[in-house]
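Box 3.1. Reading complex inputs
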Amino acid sequence: MSDNELHIMSAFDRDLEALQAHFLKLSGLAERALTDAAKALEALDSPAAERVIADDAALDELEEFIQMEAASLIARRAPTASDLRRVLAVMRGAHSLERVGDYAKNVAKRTRVLPQSAPVDGHAGTIRRMSALVTRMLDEATRALVQKDAQLAEAVRKRDLDIDQMYNTLFRSLFTYMMESPANIGPAMHLHFIAKNIERAGDHATTIAEQALYLATGRMPTDPRPKAGIETEG
Amino acid sequence: MNDMTRTGLETETATAKISARGVQVHYGQNHALKNVSVEILDRAVTAFIGPSGCGKSTFLRCLNRMNDTVASARVSGQILLEGEDIYDPRVDPVQLRARVGMVFQKPNPFPKSIYDNVAYGPKIHGLTRNKAELDAIVEASLRKAALWGEVKDRLDAPGTGLSGGQQQRLCIARAIATGPEVLLMDEPCSALDPIATAQVEELIDELRASFSVVIVTHSMQQAARVSQKTAFFHLGHLVEYGDTGDIFTNPKDPRTEAYITGRIG
Amino acid sequence: MTDLSAAPGFTARPKSSILTASAEMKRRNAAEARFKAYGMIAVAIALATLAIMLFTILRDGVSAFHQARLTFPMELSAEVLDPKGNRNREEMSKVTTVGYQKVLSKALLAELDRQGIAQEGVSDKEIGELISKDAAGELRARVLADPALLGTTITANVLATGRIDGFLKGRVTLETAERDSNISPDQLRLAEKLRDAGLLRSSWNWDFFTNADASDQRPEAAGLGVALLGSAYMMLLVLVMCVPVGVAASIYLEEFAPKNRWTDAIEVNISNLAAVPSIVFGILGLAIFINFAGLPQSSSLVGALVISLMTLPTIIIATRASIRAVPPSIRDAALGVGASKMQTVFHHVLPLAMPGILTGTILGLASALGETAPLLLIGMVAFVDNYPSAPPEGFLDPATALPVQVYSWASRADPAFIERSNGAIIVLLVFLVIMNVGAILLRRRFERRW
């Protein structure tokens, strides 16, 4: 595509580069928050959870910075066509990443209260695997967006199905726990919300992938997003 | 979410006013326009964009045969105005220009009064029988050009004494006065300040209700603001033609993309 | 700074205060000052030349506008002037100017007697010679026109002879009179007394503008009348012939003609025509209009035809320039609203070009007014002492023109003609200045209108 070529005005290129660099950095922060939160959950490590909560402020700040930069770039450079789509995709993607950070923070908050309750074994590992998968999706979706890689974005989008299935399995398992003993209800509920948060983070990874597709093709994907809802299986 | 890439869906129902088929223009040895085919819609603004020397002004001037005044210009192909070929030997270009009006880059009012500027076209075409009818045409044209309120008390003042933006609107009023169906505008705002530009753009948007407007512009933002259809010319070719929203968010041709995003292409 | 100076293409500029001029700057300023000085010197030389020229012409020419006249009472004796006594004009015209001259001399002598001015060795004949030879003819014409004057006493107001006029203006002195066969110092002394007695005085010379040319013997009677009328006829004819043709040709060449080899050739030839020496046009006029077409020599029509040939290129060039100066946007505007080519030209281009066309025409006419050489060749330098009749027949009558009159006077022997020649130059210059100022005013007026 012609947008591999440089703009006549090189400052435009520098602005776009800077915006994407910040976007990549934001993506890194979000991925790390999610990984750290999942690790803290598995180890029931409260101080680590506290660190995740504290680090979210930086993530929010960076997201706001990106939105401001993007607005300024629109105002000053009046981007069109692929440039316009790139800025829009980055803005929407940054918003998604900020939400992912919030979910990680919520996971960490729930991790803090989990040790006081009765342990519900075996699920933390599943949740960590799930979060690892989401983290990879985020990484790939971000890369697809920056590199304008439609194939990679499409692959990420397909992978959302796996997350949904993992979540559904976990949901049924936790449901069984809660039926066994009312004492399990509290921790199981927390674990369920944690799983739900990570599932939603996966949805945001898909959103970013869709933005990458919009950037690459100029159209939002029109086919319905692959979905495995608990309603249909329930 | 899809509608984000589209504006001016109302153009879809409009009919073609001018159909160009395989238009070629040569200036001596220079092949200025290569096989251009395009349908220009009625009651819509069509913008021609492209780098200097791409043929967009040449094509515009073909539409009312202003190229006839250039001795070395040769035009081939067909340009149909409502199905009639304007390059048919039976067509008198003078008569054609009453139906296809033109507004130029530099505001060029005649060095006469505001009234005489607007009345000139109707007078030479014999559109009126008496002074009252002429007065009515002048007022209607000035009203349509959103200038009546500013000049109604000084119709005898020279047209050249108006500000640049007013002059350009006067030129538009002059073009409207002969009752054209198509208005051609060759970079009508390039000599105006931003406020005057905005006023003229607003006027162009209003004119869309009554005319088929074709505008050549160097400002892509202007094309994006005022037009429903955009045509991109490059090196004498019509590279891409489509809805303005599509052209500016998702052009199909890499050359269009390179041009509108400001890349070397 | 070191980085910059290290880069190729940049030489290190030593840091210095902008308050002190560098040597380089001083050198440049000096060069500029020198250049200004050269320009001013050139302008001063041009102005000085002009001033000297104007001064010389005015010094030598202004006196032509005054003329010495003798005023004395005179009895028109019926016995002498109408010997048959029947007041019949036929009979009366048998009395020649010589007869009238005698009457004039006698009247002047009688007045001298009455005033008690001694003749002091000046003979009666010499006293008669103080009166211009032109006066007798003038008096005769007056009496023949009105025979009722016979027998009455009128106040004669007649031209003094050229030498006396020169004496009053300081051109003729007692010393020059010694060597002059036409006048003696005694006559001059007598003239002095006449002046003191109020009989002789210098007054405004309307005759200079109305009289025809006069022979060598009576420069005091020579005037510009025929030359002015001849020039006026010629300018009128040139205007009528040149402007329509010139403007039409310009419009066609500028607006309608295709640009090809033919129009290029025409363009080059028009420019060349403007550069052809005027004497060539004179020869052309002589060959074609007089020898071939058989038009009368010295007539203002032939003069106008020749001058038209010379003025036409000037007018065409000026008109084309002013048509070309009309912004193309105006043509576009007119064509854009559906005006035809001709409507565009006549409604818009021509009115806008009009000030330029008028200016060009006036300047062309002004140069035509001063044209001499071709008129010499077609015989307009001939001695013409009769007014041409009224147009249109008058266009074929012999006439002369202002610059030619200057030329012919300047080549005569009597210094009185030199004075008149300079006077004619002043008249010519005044006309040229009026025309040029008119051109400037026209241009100003039209340009300010919009």
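In summary: The CA atoms of residues 26 and 130 of chain B lie 44 Å apart.
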